[in-house]
Amino acid sequence: MNDTPNVIDQAVAASKMVFTTIEPKKLKSFLESIFSVDVTILSSHSAAEKSGSSSGIFIFDAKIGNEANAAIKKLVLRYDPQSEDRLFFEYDLDSQYKLIDRLKDTGLPIPKVYGVDPTGERLGVSGFVMDCVDGEPIPTSLFHSGPLVVASDEERLNIYRSILKTLVTLHSLDHVSLGLQDFTKDAVGNNSAEKLINWWWRTWQWTMPSSYDRLVPVKQWLLSNIPQNDNVVLMHGDPNLGNYLVKNGQVSAILDWELSSIGNPELDIAIQVLSMESHLSTADQLSVTPPTQEQWLSFFYEAGGRPVKHFDYYRKHAAYQIVICFESMCKYLPADIQGAYQQMAEFYWRVIEEN
Fold first, then answer.
1. Per CATH, which fold does 136-353 belong to?
2. For the chain, what is the total number of helices (H) and then of strands (E)?
3. Under a CB-based contact definition with an 8 Å cutoff, are residues 342 and 221 in contact?
4. Rounded CA gap, 225 and 222, in Å?
5. Which of 225, 237, 240, 244 is nearest to 262 (CA)?
6. What share of the chain is helix, strand, coil (3-state, %, to 5)?
7. Could you tell me if 226 and 314 are in contact, meaning their C-beta atoms sit under 8 angstroms apart?
8. pLDDT values of the chain reduced to their tens digit, one per residue, 355 residues
9. Which residues are CB-contacts of 261 (< 8 A; sequence separation ≥ 6)?
10. Where in the chain is the domain with CATH 3.90.1200.10?
11. CA distance 232 to 313
């Protein structure tokens, strides 16, 4: 029996064990500065245990205001993990907060944000507070448990359609009118695509895995073969299915905007395709058979997406980013999980290196 889903869940849990701990007194003070009233933190939740492995996530209930007119809110603090055992070399929580706030009236299903500590002066780490949206997360292991597994075939298809409709809505936004025409990654480059490739490379250099040299020609090939950038949109940057919440068969929120930038929509689609395609080799051992690339692109077109261009290039670009994530995680995972992750990474290496 393939144990990939369990390995993925263990890896997510391992990443969070080393994240910095938020001091309740500092969080209370920060919340009171945001809401300008007394705040009492009531309880915390563990709903994010099997989702996400990059930023710190603290989910909690808080009483906002005095007894006469208090409101109970379920909130999320997203924060810099402040650990050497982290996924990315840097975290820009301030830009992430400002982006989500800027998208609040676009019709996208996103949480309401309330306030940010960009420097960590109040919280001790940089972070921001937002609403906890009602919905069930799709676990990182995708097809092992969660909404996609308990759904009927028709319900699952509707979830897929809702996910892609959300992505099409994002790609259809006028990012220039939103003031995001220069929303690129902070790295060297003459355009958004070069900056994105070079930004990811900084994490590779920071990680310095044993496979470092293997990726050098890949980076050069990606930089030398960037397709003409004639369809720049606001990308999510990591729209794998584990970054969606589902309620009543529909997307209630799309989360984790830390990798967002302007770029080509094909990269978002390629990330989704590869994150599911990697499970196909063990589909007979899964509760749900993952969609193929052909099926997913068909769903995308049905949702209103434009025909993809240069998709072979964006598959390699997506695999390049995923390999960097996997190798970065391996530097802090226990040895048994590390070996399993390196084995899973070979699927993405094959995508990168195939002619």
1. Aminoglycoside 3'-phosphotransferase; Chain: A, domain 2 (3.90.1200)
2. 11, 10
3. no
4. 5
5. 237
6. 45, 15, 40
7. no
8. 345 555 555 555 544 455 678 899 999 999 999 999 999 999 887 655 444 557 889 999 999 998 778 899 999 999 998 777 778 888 899 999 999 999 999 999 999 999 999 999 999 999 999 999 999 999 988 898 899 999 999 999 999 999 999 999 999 999 999 999 999 999 999 999 999 999 999 999 999 999 999 999 999 999 999 998 778 999 999 999 999 999 999 999 999 999 999 999 999 999 999 999 998 888 888 889 999 999 999 999 999 999 999 999 999 999 999 999 999 888 878 887 888 888 889 999 999 998 7
9. 183, 184, 185, 192, 195, 196, 234, 235, 237
10. 136-353
11. 16
| Residue 232 CB-density burial (10 A; 0-12 exposed, 13-18 middle, 19+ buried) | middle
| Cβ neighbour number for residue 153 with a 10 Å cutoff | 8
**How do 127-131 and 39-45 pair as beta strands?**
unpaired
Rounded to the nearest angstrom, the gap between the alpha carbon of residue 355 and the centroid of all alpha carbons in its chain is 29
Cβ atoms within 10 Å of 93's Cβ, excluding its own: 23
Q: Which CATH class is domain 4-131?
A: alpha beta
Using CA atoms, how far apart are residues 73 and 109, in angstroms rounded to an integer?
A: 18
